[in-house]
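Entry 0007
Protein: Secreted protein
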Amino acid sequence: MKKCRAVVVGLVAVLVAAVAPAVPAQAATTLPAADFRLKATGYSGLIDDLDAALPNVSVPTVVGDGNRAATSCAPAAANRVAAFCWNSGDDGVAYWMPQGITTTADAYGEATYEGVTAILVSWYDNGSDGIERGVRVSFVDYSTPSAPTYRHVLLVEPYTNGSGQASFRPVTLHAGGMFWYGHHLYVAATGSGFRVFDLRHLWQTSTTDSSAIGRQADGSHQAFGYKYVLPQAFAYNQSTANGRANIRFSFAALDRTSTPDSVVVGEYANPGAGSRLFRFPIDYTDRMLTESADGYARASEAYEVSVQSMQGATAINGKFYLSTSDGSGNKGDLATFTPGGPVVMRADVLPIGPEDLSYWPAKGQLWSLTEYAGNRSVFAVRASAY
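Output (structure tokens):
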């Protein structure tokens, strides 16, 4: 009898999670969007030099060269439609922290990139083992959803070393969000804006020294033991007008359902009073943020949402979706709002530790991931359920 009662209680819990009540919160306040702006730097002139010094490989080559197998799992997300987990080493590693997510559905409307279907996840190194490796990105081959494989690629910044030679160094970012657009990978840089990486330039390195980075005295190029590196090509740096506080670029996502395509960025804050959300248009012809005649890319929408512990956001057909975390011991929440209406919170519908968001339009799937060691997953929920 106790077993039957437990089964009934479990079924009720599942049904409750699937139809979690929507709790209205405060309305989002509109801000003067044009006061928030970004400006691109020049394209790195060192990439050509490093192209000549290192073997160049393609995205399909990296995706097809997975050296780790994902595992099956069932994270506790209401309306979950897909999921996988990392291998045991990546699930438990203490110094790498997963943060951002994007897919080939962001890269191009047909949801593939040069014939491959992939999911990309960013991780930052917290330095707890004494080495600062910067940021890596997992290239996950998702052509067979039941058996994904993956390989980590190190993000690097080209620079001229003390000997006057082109080299590269780690990219030290939190990498809390990213999106893939054409051949560009945009990664959120918390205090400044975006770092942009060019997927037409993936380099194969030597893997003989797990503690070295960049060009070495013997002419080899090391990358902390990582086989492939992806270089930063340029950046977007922020500024504001009329005394507005700078944006905290905590996360980022692409919105292909807007006209034109656009980018959603937002701020983590705990407590959440004053946390904000922004939209910037992006140009599909050159894969750059849409610029005015003065060279600035200005926000087209800006809101104060005052949502605590936002970890990710995107928009679908004019409706914003926000993931929020409640620490390592509680499930995450999903909030939504339409401009002019209230922010509506759905409690405990996401797993513990949810992060960035990315929407896959053709599948109707809202993708996210979790960060805490020992409980890490990548998952999708049915967007229409919210």
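Curator remark: The two ends are 36 Å apart (CA to CA). The first strand starts at residue 22 and ends at 27.
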